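Sat 14:20. Reprocessing the chain from the morning session after the first attempt stalled halfway. Input below, unchanged.
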Amino acid sequence: MFVRTVAGDRSVKVLGFAHCHEHLFVFPTDGVSLPQRLIADDFTKSKEEVGRFQAAGGGALVDAQPFAAGRNAKLLLRLSEETGVHIIASTGLHKKMFYSDGFWSERTGKRVLTDLFISEIDGGMYEYDFSNPFCKRCGVKAGIIKIAAEAEGLTGYYRNIFDAAIEAHRETGAPIMTHTELSQAGKEQAEYLIAGGVPAECIIISHMDRVIDFDKNIELARMGVFLEYDTITRFKYHPDSEEIELIGRMVEEGFTGQLLLGMDTTRDRMLSYGGSFGLEYIRRRFIPALKEYGISEEDIKKLVVENPQKALSFS
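Finished this time. Tokens:
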């Protein structure tokens, strides 16, 4: 099995300790007013942050910022080269707030979207440009398809994107990661992708810990997909103690092999940008808390090493 990193295809064994959902760069784009807390546009600061992660024993990160949403493919490669951390970049499309009104994707057919996703996986991603997302392509390849839906679920617009992701997976074998709004519609998303022919083990449903709902997580896990827990230290949603209890209960139910961890980090959570906690938090503080709760070393290794190897590999 292999993963497609920004530096090329690598054996899954090289990943080591991995976070499966971060945002290492979010640059401004024309016609979009993102909150400043989301903007991460300083290479030196992002490098410092990823360096802290590496110094804490981190080996790999997924950058979940997809096409034309402030992603910077060339800087992701440079970041990986200068820190030694393996980075998996995303093609796909985010939710509408990351794009200008009437953005290209709103008037684009499934096949054109499919071709975009495939080309960024097999050929190379488009470079960052403030006003023209199709300005120039580089040779840095995406290793995952990141798609999203909002609280209303799979409306026609998002269904078109999901259909394109299904076809792009079929033609490339790349894994698919989805954004759920406040843990809603994860089951709907998984059902749609599986019905389209995507194997459950190639699907990652993000943010299933935003709202702690044990029954909903169990129901989704029984479908065979990966559940990503990335609300760690997001205390406006819940304390880490509730996060740890959710993980503990899922482990007890036998779903350890389907759980992934991350921090969904943006500017306001990076120490290098003046934020709080930092990318090393899971390794230095959250893992010890899991051990104190009673989760075994073997299960923790699955969460942060073995499961990412499976979830991020090409089928």
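The chain has one domain: 2-311.
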